[in-house]
Amino acid sequence: MPRQLSDKTVSLVKATVPALEAHGLAITRRMYERMFQNAEIRDLFNQSHHGETGSQPKALATAVLAYARNIDNLGVLSTAVERIAQKHVGLNILPEHYPYVAEALLGAIKDVLGDAATPEILEAWGEAYWFLADLLIGREKQIYDEHANAPGGWSGWRDFVVKEKVRESEIITSFTLAPADGAPVLRHRPGQYLTFWLEIPGHAPLKRNYSISSAPGDAQYRITVKREPMGLASNWLHDAVQPGTRLKVAAPAGEFVLPERPERPLVLLSGGVGQTPLMSMLETLAAEGAARPVQFVHGTLSGATHALGARAKALAKASGGAIRAVTFYECPRPQDVQGAAYDAEGRMTMDWLCANTPLGEADYYLCGPRPFLRAFVGGLLEAGVPAERLHYEFFGPADELLAA
Question: 397 pLDDT band (50/70/90 cuts)?
Fold first, then answer.
């Protein structure tokens, strides 16, 4: 455990909150500029959250501000710290990488704030950074050790071979992967993701996370990937990767997971390709025999974008009523038959959830784009679902201090 922060450091960091509110984004942008001058460090990061979308500096600015505001009550950040640690393990970030981030962050604070960044302020932020870094390094070591020592586990990058490629819809494809050495794999927790090191000809190495869409097993994983119009990695996977292709993969990671023994009914809500981690949960519940009622509620545009629909319906049918699958099509095509391909026309709504799911009893697991989560996490809270029974994941950059 790192030693406690000094009272002086806590006071000085909290005093910087107004400056971070005004200049936080400029600081994080400058931090990445400084850090990415080192190609080795640059290649640790998921560049789609930087050059392609520019979203990560905003997420990082939010995270730094949250850290400063809560520097005297860090318990409220425990969930965020676990999420960051899990992401770092997927990316194989190691203790020796942290000094580069410290140097870039403190340098950026000085560059942006100028004379306002006094030696005392920089010293306080240095202490605050290393306090958090030591927490993360300790937790990440625990996870690395768990992965290395578990049956089928490994550390670092492991070669996998694509065994099967299945087109699930016009924009979504599934890939089944098995280790190139033929040895077993680590059984993931339903909801976790794999991190990939992708070597695309003509480009620097890319890091990408893709949720596992299959139930845990000893031999292979399945990922289900949406083709993004401007996504270099997703387009390469769809167009170039075929059975036999080798890919470098890190061990499963992520804290958005199904409990081992659900205590309440479960409602799994997804929008678009956000269903992939929830499909892993659904397959697991079906294989184990759902001890509690399960509702799998999914929304997508139409049959053209609907993936794994037949699989969800088959699992529900085989469950003997323990599992119910409901699909919404926002704009069904003429060939999309209601009652067969989908169940309800239009978007999923809070009115429907209030009328058709057990708000007072269930745990809700949600995954989808930010607008989907804003609507339904907020709506469920307003409807009286306790925050501790809401579990959610979004696809995009997390609010983290050393981000992918």
Answer: very low
Give me the count of residues in the chain: 404
CA 353 to chain centre: 24
Q: Which one from 32, 98, 210, 364 is the annotated catalytic residue? A: 98
Grouping H, G, I as helix, E, B as strand and the rest as coil, residue 379 is: helix
40-58 per-position pLDDT tens digit: 888 887 666 555 456 788 8
Residues 6+ apart with CB under 8 A from 194: 90, 177, 209, 210, 212, 221, 223, 249, 250, 252, 253
Task: Give the tokens for residue 73.
Answer: 């009550």
Give residues with Cβ within 8 angstroms of 86, minimum separation 6.
143, 253, 254, 255
In this structure, which topology does domain 266-394 adopt according to CATH? Rossmann fold (3.40.50)
Alpha helices in 47-186 (DSSP H): 56-69, 78-91, 98-113, 119-149
Distance CA 195, CA 249 (A): 6
Question: From 3.30.540.10, 1.25.40.10, 1.10.10.10, 1.10.490.10, which CATH number describes the 7-149 domain?
Answer: 1.10.490.10
User: Among 105, 278, 130, which residue's Cα sits nearest to residue 191?
Assistant: 278
- Rounded-to-integer distance, Cα 308 and Cα 279, Å: 8
CA atoms of 208 and 234, how far apart (whole Å): 9
Q: In which residue ranges of the chain is CATH 1.10.490.10 found?
A: 7-149
Report whether CATH 2.40.30.10 matches the domain 158-249: yes
Domain with CATH 2.40.30.10 in the chain: 158-249
pLDDT for 3 equals 72
Q: What is the pLDDT of residues 85-120, one digit of tens each?
A: 999 999 899 999 999 999 999 999 999 999 999 999
What gap in Å lies between CA 257 and CA 191, rounded to an integer?
A: 5
Q: Of all helices (H) and strands (E), which one includes residue 312?
A: helix 309-318
Active site residue 98: yes
| Cβ count within 10 A of residue 239 | 10
Residue 218 makes CB contacts below 8 A (sequence gap 6+) with 151, 152, 184, 185, 187
Q: Which amino acid is at 79?
A: T
pTM for the full predicted model? 0.90
Domain(s) of CATH 3.40.50.80: residues in the chain:
266-394
Is 263 a known active-site residue?
A: no
Catalytic one of 127, 140, 255, 393: 140
